[in-house]
């Protein structure tokens, strides 16, 4: 692996794990402060810690890891080295994002931005928090443009050829990100910054939430798509199999691009200010975005089964036995896949209008995203780290680290089983998502939630141990013996048909995606900005 690209990738990955560690500490502390188990000095409070936990885990760990991983893959598959300008763009992106992150973390720690990771109005942070967010977004755009540029150059050099599957998927991921972040950029620049500086007195809360969720839902697919890249492209190579269908993998990514964005209203189903018709349309589109995930499940089962049969596996589930259970590069992402089955089912429940009324704003939702992003995605990213760190540092994964990695994965799953399981259950009993337990005082209903809270903290503590173990593994990986580690990129089945060229008509897919967004959003946004809306002075959190 080229050393200059390796340094860029490593910087992203290490920053990501640094964020995971601090975010993990904040996660443990917030649960203890929320339940009243401890009181912290300097009045450090629940919402402050919850903001630190959410921002560092959900926004910073993921974004850095993803950009590092995508850069590594395009360097590997598009010419074996990044163009010097692309490498520089990667560093500029990294620099801007890091400046924004440091500014935001300081403000959160100073309690000047306890506005949670969703940060929409009416909660108001210090204006500099929003400036930090803008830097993070602009930095990620520059990194994204670097990826597009590398592909454009490769295409020029390889006229008429399909781009390699990894880079095709990386480009789709970043196109989706660039289109989605326009919403949050407008919210931050046009609404939040002028309002928090005091240039305007009030803010249109409905619009702010809508612009956030226009970005917030594709944000979760920005976490999922790189996870799918690993499942589609890396896992077949790791287990010694072939990719079931290159064309189907590409099609599922195109569908994810089309349907990930015009669905933000499924986070706002309980909001009175949006007409039912538009909610109905966006729920319909939400069910469309489930289809590529079902296609992914089908492809993965097919890959595993065909591989098993090629090794002589018999019976309906004989193929399960021949999978490399002792290889953490497979085991960690596989556990992520397994968890994604109930996690996805939970998502479908959330998206169903009537059932959303039962679960919205309860701990069920927190349980849902700890299975999706904090298990399926996180375990897959850990699974990638076990080979990516050795690849970019010119080292090897030792048997001891592999064993520790398996233990880490099991600890994570056990901790999450208790924590997320209890969250789902107590959510159905009505326990709210973000309100401190103590708020409900002596209420008998609230008292019945207590055993679930205890289970949540037991699970959370196991997870904290697993975070510390992961950080230990990362440090050890940086010092493992020198050697060459292969970058695992799978190949398609020999008799597979090549992917049709129209799948790479970027202009057409971006155009279609914009049309769907306009259909889903134009009229409701006009209504929100029309004469019937009320602006709010907001609530200053500091
Ligand atoms: Fe979600 C809320 C609906 C997927 C993350 N979601 C959230 C929030 C987050 C989040 C962070 O409609 C909270 C936001 C906040 O702070 O308020 N979600 C869905 C739907 C899906 C879905 C329909 N969510 C995700 C993913 C996330 C994520 C992925 C992160 C990565 N979600 C919602 C809704 C809400 C919501 C509502 C709002 C709730 C509210 O009221 O506030 C779908 O995309 C899910 C499709 C997935 C599947 C599963 C396919 C299974 C596969 C694995 C195959 C396994 C194999 C191994 C092959 C259909 C691909 C098996 C081997 C064996 C041996 C068995």
From TrEMBL:
Residue stretches spanning the membrane: 7-29, 49-71, 91-110, 130-151, 163-193, 213-235, 247-265, 285-307, 328-349, 369-389, 410-430, 450-475, 506-526
Protein name: Cytochrome c oxidase subunit 1
One Pfam entry name: COX1
The species this protein was found in: Paenibacillus eucommiae
Domain (Cytochrome oxidase subunit I profile) ranges: 1-480
Family per similarity comment: Belongs to the heme-copper respiratory oxidase family.
Subcellular location, principal: membrane
Topology in the lipid bilayer: Multi-pass membrane protein
Cross-referenced InterPro entries: Ba3-like_Oxidase_I (IPR033943), Cyt_c_oxase-like_su1_dom (IPR023616), Cyt_c_oxase-like_su1_sf (IPR036927), Cyt_C_Oxase_1 (IPR000883), Cyt_c_Oxase_su1_BS (IPR023615)
Intracellular or extracellular location(s): Membrane
Keyword terms: Electron transport, Heme, Iron, Membrane, Metal-binding, Respiratory chain, Transmembrane, Transmembrane helix, Transport
């Amino acid at each position: 692996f080229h050393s200059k690209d390796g340094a860029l990738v490593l910087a992203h990955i290490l920053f990501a794990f640094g964020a995971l560690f601090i975010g993990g500490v904040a996660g443990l502390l917030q649960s203890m402060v929320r339940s009243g188990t401890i009181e912290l000095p300097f009045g450090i409070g629940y919402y402050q810690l919850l903001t630190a936990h959410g921002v560092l885990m959900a926004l910073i760990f993921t974004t850095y890891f993803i950009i590092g991983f995508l850069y590594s893959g395009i360097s590997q598959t598009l010419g074996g080295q990044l163009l010097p300008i692309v490498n520089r763009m990667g560093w500029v992106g990294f620099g801007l994002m890091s400046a924004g992150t440091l500014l935001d973390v300081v403000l959160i720690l100073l309690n000047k931005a306890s506005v949670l990771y969703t940060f929409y109005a009416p909660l108001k942070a210090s204006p500099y928090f929003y400036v930090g967010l803008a830097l993070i977004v602009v930095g990620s755009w520059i990194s994204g443009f670097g990826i597009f540029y590398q592909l454009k150059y490769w295409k020029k050099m390889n006229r008429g050829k399909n781009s390699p599957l990894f880079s095709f998927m990386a480009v789709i991921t970043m196109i989706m990100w660039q289109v989605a972040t326009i919403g949050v950029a407008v919210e931050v620049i046009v609404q939040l910054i002028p309002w928090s500086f005091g240039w305007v007195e009030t803010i249109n809360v409905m619009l702010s939430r809508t612009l956030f969720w226009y970005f917030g839902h594709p944000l979760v697919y920005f976490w999922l798509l790189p996870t799918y890249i690993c499942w589609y492209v890396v896992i077949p190579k790791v287990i010694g199999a072939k990719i079931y269908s290159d064309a189907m993998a590409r099609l599922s990514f195109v569908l994810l691009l089309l349907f990930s964005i015009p669905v933000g209203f499924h986070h706002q189903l309980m909001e009175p200010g949006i007409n039912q018709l538009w909610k109905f349309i966006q729920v319909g589109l939400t069910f469309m975005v489930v289809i590529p995930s079902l296609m992914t499940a089908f492809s993965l089962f097919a890959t595993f089964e065909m591989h098993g049969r090629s090794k002589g596996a018999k019976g309906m589930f004989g193929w399960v036995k021949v999978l490399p259970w002792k290889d953490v590069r497979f085991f960690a992402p596989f556990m992520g896949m397994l968890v994604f089955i109930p996690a996805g089912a939970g998502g479908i429940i959330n998206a169903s209008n009537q059932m959303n009324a039962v679960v919205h704003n309860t701990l069920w939702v927190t349980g849902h995203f700890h299975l999706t992003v904090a298990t399926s995605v996180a375990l897959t990213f850990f699974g990638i780290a076990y080979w990516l760190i050795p690849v970019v540092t010119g080292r090897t994964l030792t048997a001891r680290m592999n064993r520790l990695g398996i233990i880490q994965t099991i600890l994570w799953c056990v901790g999450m089983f208790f924590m997320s399981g209890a969250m789902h259950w107590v959510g159905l009993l009505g326990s709210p998502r973000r309100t401190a337990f103590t708020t409900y005082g002596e209420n008998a209903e609230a008292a019945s939630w207590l055993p679930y809270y205890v289970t949540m903290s037991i699970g959370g503590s196991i997870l904290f141990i697993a975070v510390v173990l992961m950080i230990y593994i990362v440090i050890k990986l940086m010092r493992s013996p020198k050697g060459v580690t292969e970058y695992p990129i799978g190949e398609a089945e020999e008799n597979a048909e090549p992917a049709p060229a129209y799948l790479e008509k970027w202009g057409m897919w971006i155009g279609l995606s914009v049309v769907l967004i306009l259909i889903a959003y134009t009229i409701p946004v006009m209504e929100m900005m029309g004469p019937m809306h009320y602006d709010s002075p907001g609530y200053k959190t500091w």
